[in-house]
Amino acid sequence: MRKIPETAKPPLRISADGRRRPLAAYLPGITLCMSLIAVLLIVPAAAYISRDYGFFTRDPTQIGNIPRYAGFLSSLGVMAWTVGAAVSLFTGSVLASRSRDVADPRFFLFFGGFTALLAWDDLFLIHENFILGEKPLFLAYGSIALIGIVLFREVFRGASRRFALAAATAFLLSLSVDAGQRLIEGRIGDIRILIEDGAKFIGAVCWAIFLCRSGAASISRCTYE
């Protein structure tokens, strides 16, 4: 078995029995604790806005008494963001403990976290309710993406770069249609919404494909180093 270089070993902590454990070993416990906290927070939240617990736990289509297929494209978009984030964060964790190249794990951890943030935004419509408005938040998202592209530009030169380019093109189209919605909707009507939201959905799918393909290639390369 190939010996992992000292610099490539994951960070360790000393357990109660004196044995060393990787930090990743604590992640399941942390995740469970955060999940429990999320459930317990429903109690004060329900009391604060005078709602029953089901208001926070049931599906929105049930609460709103609307067809279950309402907003299905938006739901699929959140799933695409989530897949990209999960695969990216998993890949970053694996590479952090095995790869000699620190750029790869940092790329996946950076963009995995960023993609998770976008999923959270898309699910809870944070940008539409942001206290400073949409534009400052979109500017912040664009700045984060640009910083990541500059820092990890070598990754974007890989074989899967066409999916990243397709995602960027789709997002720019969606943002452009949103910015000029008054002018565009006056000419093409309700199809403007389909173009805007459809482009965002395709962008999320292309981005998830890019992260999945890049992650698979990085893990494969690390395995055969």
Structural overview:
This protein has helices at 27-40, 42-49, 54-57, 60-63, 72-98, 103-124, 134-151, 161-179, 181-188, 191-223; strands at 12-14, 20-22. With 225 residues, the chain is mainly alpha-helical. The protein has a two-stranded antiparallel sheet with strand order 1-2. Helix 8 (161-179) runs antiparallel to helix 10. The longest helix has 33 residues, at 191-223.
Mean pLDDT: 87
C-alpha geometry: globular
| Main sheet record | 2 strands, antiparallel
**Rg for CA atoms:** 21 Å
The DSSP helix count reads 10
Please write the string of helix (H) and strand (E) elements.
Answer: EEHHHHHHHHHH
Count of DSSP strands: 2
Structural class: mainly alpha
Highlighted features:
225 residues, mainly alpha, 2 domains, two-stranded antiparallel sheet, 70% helix, 3% strand, disordered N terminus
Summarize the topology.
Blueprint: E1 12-14, E2 20-22, H1 27-40, H2 42-49, H3 54-57, H4 60-63, H5 72-98, H6 103-124, H7 134-151, H8 161-179, H9 181-188, H10 191-223
Antiparallel strand pairs: 1-2
Helix pairs in contact: 5-6, 5-10, 6-7, 8-10
Outline of the structure:
The protein has 225 residues and is mainly alpha-helical.
